[in-house]
Amino acid sequence: MDMIHITMPDGAVREVPLGTTAAEIAQQISPRLAKEALVARIAPVHGSGGRSAKASDHDAPDAAPEARLDASSNGEGFLVDLRAPIDQDVKLSVLTPKDPEAIQVLRHSAAHLLAAAVLELFPNVKLGIGPPIDTGFFYDFVRDEAFTPEDLARIEKKMRELAAQDIPNERKMLPKPEALELYRRWNQGFKCELVEERAIEPMVSFYTTGKFIDFCRGPHIPSTGRIRAFKLMSVAGAYWKGQEGNPQMQRIYGACFYTQQELDEYLHRLEEAKRRDHRRLGPELDLFSVQEEAGPGLIFWHPKGGLVRKLIEDWLRDELLKRGYDLVVTPHIMRLDLWKTSGHAQFYRENMFGPVEVEKDDYQLKPMNCPGHILIYKSRLRSYRELPVRLAELGTVYRYERSGVLHGLLRVRGFTQDDAHIFCMPEQIESEVEACMDFAFAVMKTFGFSQYVVELSDWDPEHPENYPGSAADWAHATGALEKTLNKMSIPFKRMKGEGAFYGPKIDVKLIDAIGRPWQLTTVQFDFNLPGRFGLEYVGEDGARHQPLMVHRALLGSVERLFGILIEHYAGAFPVWLAPVQAEVLPLSEKFMDYAKKVTAALAEAGFRAHLDDRNEKLQARIRDAQLQKTPYMLVVGGKEAEAGTVSVRQQSKGDLGPRPLSDFLADLRKQVDSRTI
Ligand SMILES: [Zn+2]
Ligand SMILES: [Zn+2]
Known about the structure:
This protein is α+β, with helices and mostly antiparallel strands. The chain is 34% helix and 27% strand. The longest helix has 22 residues, at 100-121. Mean pLDDT is 92; it is low at 48-74. One zinc ion is lined by residues 63-64, 67, 108, 112, 130, 214, 216.
């Protein structure tokens, strides 16, 4: 009997008969592994003289290109069904739910299960494609009637029935003419089109799940029984092949995880994200708006939002001055020629608003602050004694974003960056980068974030021709970034080739209250602009040198930080940031005088208090203050007036009982001054 050699991940080699399957090998290793296995990864061992590697038919295009799961391109082999006979020497890994790749296979199989269930209930639907996605799967269908929520419930129920039957997912190879004939008889025009276009002859790969048969490269999990934790989420419109003008399809989305607990956590995160959505909370809390009349992507800061912005900006400007930055202000519109010198007019054109003609000269609304700061640096000759020069601006920029990608405060057409440019000597870069990172951490701490991810992005050393600056420049700058991160014991991910074209950078993504990452801080070197603008300083040696330039934004933009804060706190800002810190609620009309006194005392002490003097029931007024997420509610009646107290209710904790007004004021002072989160 022909034997083949299977190398396991631990290096152990097994000799097994030709045609042995991964499932059989898993069984030999342990029944438990066999039970948990979902799919296998194999990589042919070169020079083994194996015959037609199973790999070849896995190169057949799938009905769903998004579902491409094989990794043959990265040299690590490809995924195969557990039941696929192995016909040459290979390295083999049996993948269980612990392997992130295997979940995508499970989700792909869930897409097939969805199609199988839909066909049982609606035999006349036409099938499109059905790949796995990040959190689950989808399948596209054409049906005359729209799928209703009731239909989804029925389909999901049918999926559960079919899953419980543990129907095998079986691979079949058919000659192309037979494959076409099969789909023609079945009247599945879209599938015929896919087979015509994508099948590599002579044999076409199919998978069956009971009566359902799909043109698909796979792989799949062995049977439907393992698909347990799933939920159909929604129906959306989609065009065949994603092209407008093609037939409209209905795309059914599902979520799918290994365990019910993971699914529940995902559904909970979705609910939380909805509850925290700043686009909903913005108008509800009267913080900001986007006005159709004024144009999309342009933010109106309402009084309460404006107040939060003032607090953010005040903190930031004070910190900038403390940390040795100079505050500058540059024009919003400058000659187009300046943007030609900087290169933006050529390389950043598609993100810029069109030029404006003034006295036969073209002017450009600024998409970035860098050239403005460069002109200030260049306004006189600089000596090495002045360096580093740190120019900071809350600089409002305008960028042309397509209307389809605009998103609340996070993706806009006009925004204010907390931008700064540092011009320094090579020997100063390490301490400058360290100071930037220290500042970035102060931002996170102040605004209440404790988790973050840091990425260090470098150039692609195989294509130095794509970058300005010499290899030595890049090595020096990247080395400085890396050294600083190590020195500060900041863990980071190295992103090769992900740097800006003009220099390496550090990005900081913070993690919010529900675990979502948000890009915030960026610190970037620039080997491009100092040369373009001919920047210089006079060195200690009396000769002219080119300074190094660093761009850095810590908040990203005030708009962006505000959007993230709204979502992080679900609108309930910490007391130092809250637009209204205390709502004064007289028990009834009778106690209005005392209520006014309390409100005035708060204002006197520099707090933001509001008196709710509406003629409404106390419960209704408490509910409103609660909905407005006001941190404190101070209820005052006869007892309080007599004793000089306030009955304190905290938005997050409920009733705290009566306290002397002076005590409450002192406590509030402490919280605000220390920016308690
Ligand atoms: Zn498929
Ligand atoms: Zn810049």
